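Re: that backbone. C-alpha cells:
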C-alpha cells in the first residue's frame, strides 16, 4: 500500500465552525482536524422488518471527499448485493476512505488510553445528516453512535433544526462527541476519536440542497439526473445507469464549498450595510446568522467593537426574548416569539382562549411581521 499520500488532508487550526488553516503532521501534532464531506445512496425495499414491522432500506453506497481534495470517492456499502465499487470492509467506513488515500489504519476499543494520547476530530459535512449518520457505521461502533442518540448524557447527538453533536465538560460546551474507548491507529500512531457533525440543512432556512447551492452561486451539474420516480429505485439506477448514478452521488459532496460561497455572499451584505469591520461568518442556522448581523448593526450604531458585547446587554436586554417572555401580564410577551430573525410561533394568525386571558390576533400578527421584516 502507498503510505505516502499525495496531499495533506489534515489541519491543526479550526478558527470557525468550518474554517481551517495550517496543515497537520499526522505523526507529530497532538490535536488534528479532518474535515470531509459524507453522503450515502440507498433504496427502499418492499420487505418488512421482522422486528419493528417497517419497510427495510438498503444502503447502496457511501461517498467521501476530504475538503482538501477536488473529487470524492464512492464505496459500495456492505448491504449492496451487486457492488461495482470497492466494498467497505471497516465498521467505521471513514477508515476505508483513509486507506484509499494511502494511510495504514485500524480501529479498536481500548480502555484507559493515556491522557496524552493524540486526538483526531472528524468534521463530517452533510446536508440533512440524520439520513446518513447510521449508514456510515456498522457493528459495535454503530451501537456506540446509537447510544449517543437514544441515551444522551453529557455527550449527545440530537436532531433540532439540524443534527448536532455536543459535549458538556467542566462547565463548557463543545460541538463534538467522543465515543467511549475508540482508538484509531494511523500509520502506527494511536488517536482518541472525536466526531463533529456539520449539518448544512438549516444554513439558509428551509431550502433544499439544490437551492442552498444555487443561492450561494454553486452549480450542481448532475442534481437532476434522476426523476423522483427513478430515485425510488436507486438500486436499479446503480447498475443500469452507472455514469448518471456516480455523477449524482458525487454531486452531493459540496457542502463545504457551498458554505464558503455562502460566506462570501454574506460578507457582501455586511459590506453593503457598512458593517464590514464587524463581519462574522454565517452560522449553520439562518436564525443565528441573522442574529449576528443584527448584533453587528447595533454594535456599529454605538461605535463599539466586536469585542464589546456589553453594548448588547446594556441597550438590548429589555427587548430580548428572555426578558419579554416573562412579561405575562401584557401582550409584550408575544414579542418573545421573535428572536434571531425568525418567528417561533408556528401558527401566527391563530387566536385561542386561555383560562383568564384572550390572546388577540393583532399582536401575534405583529410579531409575525416583525420577524419577516428581519428576514427580508
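Recovered sequence:
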Amino acid at each position: 500500500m502507498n503510505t505516502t499520500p499525495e496531499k495533506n488532508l489534515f489541519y491543526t487550526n479550526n478558527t470557525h465552525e468550518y474554517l481551517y488553516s495550517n496543515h497537520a503532521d499526522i505523526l507529530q501534532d497532538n490535536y488534528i482536524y479532518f474535515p470531509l464531506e459524507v453522503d450515502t445512496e440507498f433504496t427502499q425495499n418492499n420487505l418488512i422488518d421482522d422486528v419493528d414491522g417497517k419497510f427495510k432500506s438498503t444502503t447502496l453506497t457511501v461517498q467521501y471527499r476530504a475538503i482538501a481534495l477536488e473529487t470524492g470517492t464512492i464505496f459500495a456499502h456492505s448491504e449492496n448485493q451487486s457492488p461495482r465499487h470497492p466494498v467497505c470492509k471497516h465498521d467505521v467506513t471513514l477508515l476505508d476512505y483513509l486507506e484509499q488515500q494511502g494511510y495504514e489504519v485500524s480501529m479498536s476499543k481500548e480502555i484507559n488510553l493515556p491522557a496524552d494520547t493524540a486526538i483526531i476530530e472528524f468534521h463530517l459535512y452533510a446536508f440533512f445528516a440524520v439520513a446518513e449518520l447510521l449508514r456510515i457505521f456498522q457493528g459495535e461502533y454503530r451501537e456506540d453512535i446509537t447510544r449517543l442518540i437514544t441515551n444522551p448524557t453529557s455527550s449527545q447527538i440530537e436532531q433540532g433544526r439540524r443534527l448536532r453533536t455536543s459535549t458538556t465538560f467542566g462547565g463548557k460546551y463543545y460541538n463534538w462527541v467522543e465515543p467511549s474507548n475508540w482508538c484509531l491507529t494511523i500509520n502506527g500512531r494511536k488517536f482518541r476519536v472525536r466526531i463533529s457533525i456539520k449539518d448544512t440543512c438549516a444554513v439558509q432556512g428551509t431550502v433544499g440542497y439544490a437551492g442552498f447551492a444555487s443561492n450561494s452561486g454553486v452549480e450542481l451539474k448532475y442534481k437532476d439526473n434522476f426523476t423522483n420516480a427513478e430515485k425510488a429505485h436507486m438500486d436499479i439506477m446503480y447498475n443500469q445507469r452507472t455514469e448518471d448514478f456516480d455523477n449524482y452521488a458525487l454531486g452531493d459532496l459540496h457542502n463545504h464549498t457551498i458554505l464558503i460561497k455562502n460566506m462570501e455572499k454574506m460578507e457582501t451584505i455586511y459590506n453593503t450595510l457598512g458593517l464590514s469591520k464587524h463581519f462574522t461568518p454565517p452560522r449553520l442556522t439562518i436564525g443565528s446568522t441573522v442574529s449576528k448581523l443584527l448584533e453587528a448593526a447595533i454594535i456599529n450604531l454605538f461605535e463599539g467593537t466586536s469585542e464589546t458585547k456589553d453594548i448588547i446587554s446594556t441597550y438590548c436586554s429589555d427587548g430580548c426574548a428572555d426578558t419579554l417572555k416573562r412579561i405575562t401580564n401584557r401582550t409584550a410577551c408575544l414579542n418573545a416569539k421573535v428572536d434571531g430573525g425568525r418567528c417561533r410561533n408556528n401558527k401566527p394568525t391563530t387566536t385561542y382562549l386561555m383560562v383568564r386571558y384572550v390572546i388577540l390576533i393583532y399582536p401575534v400578527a405583529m410579531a409575525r411581521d416583525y420577524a419577516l421584516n428581519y428576514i427580508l
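The longest helix spans residues 255-272. Residues 351-376 have pLDDT under 50 and may be disordered.
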